[in-house]
Every structure is written in structure tokens, then in C-alpha cells.
What does this fold into?
Amino acid sequence: MIEKAGTDENSDSAEGPLQKKADSRVLLADNERLKKALIDVLDTLPSIIARIDREGRVDLVNRQLELFSGVSAAEAFGVLLESLIPHFTPQLRQVAEAIDRQNPISFAKIQYCSGTDVLYFSMHVYPLRNENSGMAVIRIDDITEHVRIEESMIQSEKMMMVGGLAAGMAHEINNPLGAIMQHAQNIERRVSLTIPANSKAAEEVGVSLDQVRAYLEKRNIFEFLEHIRTAGSRAAEIVTNMLKFSRRGHSRIETVVLASVLDQVLALAATDYDMKKLYDFRHIELVREYSADTLRVAMNVSEMEHALLNILKNAAQAISEAAVANPRITVRTLSVDGMAAIEVEDNGPGMDETIRLRIFDPFFSTKEIGVGIGLGLSVTYAIVTREHHGTIEAWSQPGVGSRFTIKIPLHRRNG
Amino acid sequence: MNKSEVSILIVDDDEIVRESMGAFLEDEGFIIHFADSGEEALENIAFLRPVVCISDMRLAGISGEAFIVQAYSVCPATGYLLHTGMAYSPSPELRALGMTQEDVFQKPITHFSVLINRIAAIASTGRMEYSAC
It folds into this structure.
């Protein structure tokens, strides 16, 4: 806290020296008290506060700003605020205009990358309206937690909506799908040699079953039937995935070593047919950073593997599409605040904020139509949040890469 | 298990589902009966005395769940299976009748052998109680 401004109001007093001395003592006491009160108020507030002039020069900062910038109040005096907190330069450049217009301005969500953490800040600029006009008070707040809660609330609302739709739809889709797949099976069986009724019926119409089969084979009918079943299975899988959005976990929970689950997923990824076909997973360097390699966590293993595999697939695809020079995926295990954390980081092309905010949305996809339908990461989201009471966050910086952080409680709540 | 001695009652309000399931089980060699509602099935179950009854969950009248509870009081020896389009685990009422997750088949069935094995298991263990129905 600094306060260098101010003139000595009583220096030109016309009163006698004694009188003057007594008055200034009272005033001094008042000033000291006022100053202390002001410091207390400013330093108690959780906001980062500074007062700057039109050029951006600081004449007052609070404790929070000292902590944030690492510059003491005394050193900060007279310095440009943007040199103390350079990250906020674009916003601070608009302060002069706000002062000229005498209009407060606000910036709602300023992204700030501190090491590997992503923080969010809001900034308010209040031009002073008194004789000090030409100056403004800057207030900056850390709204990271607020933004995270808001994002996850919006996300779970979306999921609930899709989940509700899916639950209603599942029955309607699965019935005809069941009939389609069952009948494909029935057709195959009704021309098979093992069911006596088939030969009998063939005989009745004057052909042999062998002839019927020879014809069907010649015209690829068996292959078509197989395709009907494969396509049916694919459609069924989509419905099953959508049902996960609304389902509460009542699944098989096992306590397993987190690192071994990750190893298993990496092994799966290396052999996954899609991965081999679409992206060259073998050419991606896999880095394991297990800082909690004996950590045991309660989870539904197959679901969590599914969740992680979706993230790996996305990372691999992003990397291969962008043709990154030294493609690398880093997986980490950590233990933080009673939570087990898994990080999957890639050095792919990253994504901008508009995409990042939508990646967990069901049916949101940046891939070409036919390549993906946009369920992968939303399924991952549902598995982590609904089945494991965990959280998942995405960090990304275009040109640098993306990172997904999954956190699940080490001690599972009941129910 | 002699399949031609094992009768199965299929309860489903969707004709195409009923027919496709019926054709499949018929080809397996089972004896098949149909009902398009729980009410209709209840009228006939004491007479048919099926070894296995496969019911849809969402039916036009009483639900598959309610149907099974009532059918059990008439025919406790029958093995009841649910064939449903939704993610489902047996309610406490159904669990009290001995039903487990193994008795629930999610539409569409992709591995038919699982269904056949379940029917076979019921047919081989339920045989003695069967006559008491």
C-alpha cells in the first residue's frame, strides 16, 4: 500500500505557531487513522486494486496487486500498470478512453495461463468523478472458480437434456433396431443347412438348399446380411452411448492402481483398429509421467478406459491432422486435494476458446461428416462426472496443444 | 434339454419385434406363444404354463414389470426375462422374485447366444418346479 500524493494543507496557516501545532496534531491523528482505515479496506478486499492516471501510471496499489505482480507498492509507484501486469495490457489500453468518456468499462472473462493452470479474471475500470478526474480505479478479480462452476453447470444441463431425449428415444429406436438385427440373423438361419425345416421347405418348392445357398453366395447376399448386422450394431452403440448421459452410475466399481489403468488404455490405443487406420499412433511419442504410480482409485475400469481412450483418440487425430513435427502425448497421474488426477496432454494444434467450450457437447464435432459424430468426448464427460462424481476440464492453446484433466474423488461417496 | 419341450411366451406390443424374436426362437427349436399385452398374457399363462416368458418392458396396458409380478403369482415356476429398449436393472419387486440383471436383455440383442444360454439355464433348473405351476 502506498500513498505519496497529498500536499500539506496547513502549511500556510495564518494562526500562531502554538495553535498551528495543536491543530496539525489533531489532523495528523485523523490522517493517520484515515490512512490506516483505507489501507485496511483495500488490503482486505480479495480484488486486485490500483489507481492509475490517463497514461496508465500507478499511484496506488493494494496488497493483492503486490502479491500478484510480485512488485512492492513502493517500487510500483509511478510505473505503468501494464508493465506490472502485462497480461492485462489489451484491456488496460482502453482505460484512457474510459477516463475521457467518464464511463466505467468491464471485461468479463480474461483468460490467464499461469504455468499449466488456466485462470480467469474479470476487470472493471471506474473513472474517478471528483477533482481527480483523469484517473481511474482498476479492479481485477479472480473468477476462475466461478467460471468453472458455470461451465460445468451449463454442461450438465445440456447432458441432462440430451440424456432425457435419449432415454425417450432409446425405446423407440431400439425396438425397430432389434427387429432389424434379429431378422438379419433369422434370414441367415433360414438358409442354413443345420435346421431341418429349411431343407424340407426347399424340397417343397422344388429346389435344394445347396442351390439356394450357392445362388445367395453368388449374389453376395450373405455379405449384405452381415453388413445389416454391423450397421445395426453401430446404431445400437450410439443409442447406448446417449443413454449414459442420463444414467446415474450403479456400475461395477473396483479399486485399482491408477497407473496400470492408464498403461492398459495406452496398450488398447496402440492396438485399436480405428486408431491404426485413421491416425498413426505408433509414430506418436508416448510420455508417461506417473507421479502417483501406486495410487489406488475406485472406478468402473471399463468405463474409465473408454473415457480415456476417447481422449487419446481425439489427441491422436488432432496431432496427425496437423502433421506436428514431433508428435507427443503425455499422460500423467497426480494426487491433489483428495482427488486422483489424470492428465492427457498433446502437442497438437490446440483449439480456440469457442471450440473448447463446446467439445463436451453431444454431437459437437469439428471432424468431417462421417469421420465422427461428436459423441466421444461427451461420453467421456458423462462417464467422469456422472459415474465417478469427478470433474473434467480442457485446457488448450492454439499452436501449443491441448490438455484434459480428469479428477475423481479418492474416497467415493455412497450412492 | 429337449428344446421341443420348452415353451416360451413372448409378450411384446410391437408385432415386428414379436415376430422376429418368435422366428428366431422357433428356429432354435422351442415352442412359441405370443401375447401383445400383459393383460392378454395373464389370461393365458395359467393354461400355457411356459417354461420361459420374455416380456417387453413398455407395454400398452400394464407394464412388463407389473405383468411379471402378477404372472409370478399364477405361474411361479416360469422363468421371466425382460426384453427392453432402455437401460434397466430389476426393481426390488422383481429381485424379490429372484430376477437378476442376467434376466434383463437390452434391445437390440447383438449376442443371441447369451439369450439362448439363459433360456437353457432356466429350462434345466426350473424343470422340477415346472410341473407344480
In short: Chain B touches chain A at residues 14, 16-17, 19-21, 23-24, 27, 57-58, 83-87, 89, 106-110, 112 (CB under 8 Å). Strands of chain B lie at 7-11, 31-35, 52-56, 79-84, 104-106.
